Amino acid sequence: MNASEPVPSAEAQLRAAPPHALVATAGRLLAERFGARDVTLLLADYALTVLQPVACLPHTADPVSAHDSPAGTAFTAQKPVVEVTADPAAQLVHLPITVRGDRLGVLSVRVPPASADAGTVLRLGEVATALGHEVVTAGRDTDLYLQARRTRRLTLAAEMQWQLLPGRGCARDEYVIGAHLEPAYAIGGDNFDWSTGADHLTLTVTDGMGQGIDASLLTSLAVGALRNARRAGIGLADQACLADQAVFSQYGGKLYASTLLLRFDLATGAVRAVDAGSPQLYRQRGPTIERIELEAQMPLGMFEETLYEEQTFHVEAGDRLVAISSGVHGTRSAATGQAFGEGVLRQVLSATRQTSPHETARSVVAGLMEHVGGEELLADAAVVCLDWTGRNAATA
């Protein structure tokens, strides 16, 4: 490069790097600009239990806890963590990587102590964010980062379902969404989906009947039909009608998909809803937790040409909404036979009121697994948590 030419930005250099070479490119940039010696990208696994280093793929180096480690603290708290090491000439900076509210993992950078000041950590975080955006984009062209998220092989049904999801989080000024699925490596029919626009947010939670490949194929059809109808610009009730027709045409009523559809007006907090089956919705407003009772309508594909009707309710600034699939509210303890139900759910929601939506969704599933008394669930469980801020004069 000619000395008179400007040095490309970190973002430009990462965009120009081959998909598989993003970590190496980031390491070179950080070494040149901050004297970094070691740079490690750790991605959260599907169960959100560990952070997996991207190295030696298709296998990775030893994982670290996503909760009980310095890197895990950076991931859960979504704040940089500076770890003092045994080497007096270096400190380890752990930088959370989040893309539009979707938590991907952590970038760990070993730097000289002089480079661990607040200003430098901020600039390191900017590089980490740029790397995160490129990792998401690179996922279209390489399996490298998807492989790094796995502690073991996914079932085929789970592979299909994870590819169908939009992510595990989304954030704007008006709201923050966090979501979680279990059993992460063997899910079949549970799904969540969302789409945000200038003035509206559409959110769905779907529970396909059955297990394994059959459930995954059913849910893929239902979600694809809902997306097709949504992208045609039609109303929420008609989206449900068209998806219902698509599922019935394929399965003739033998299989069906329970779905909760929500459409939020970002300016007013008005919510249109269609309850087509078993997912349940709870609202946490201050200390009060209440189930939002919606008219139970037929699941998608149960009968031919079902007509659906919308209902409305409102959310206010500070509200938290939690949507759960039947694999959560209908699961029973193997020891006592007691359903997870509202009682245990309310306890978990009360205990996690001050945590992020991401951690609340994970905690609900963790509470469910503790209630069941096993390491893995027999039925899919989906939890979506949304914190509502709303729109004011500053964001309008």
TrEMBL record:
InterPro entries: Bact_Sigma-Reg (IPR052016), PPM-type-like_dom_sf (IPR036457), PPM-type_phosphatase-like_dom (IPR001932)
Keywords: Hydrolase
GO molecular function, one term: phosphatase activity
Residues in PPM-type phosphatase domain copies: 172-388
Source superkingdom: Bacteria
SUPFAM superfamilies linked: PP2C-like
Name of the protein in question: Phosphatase
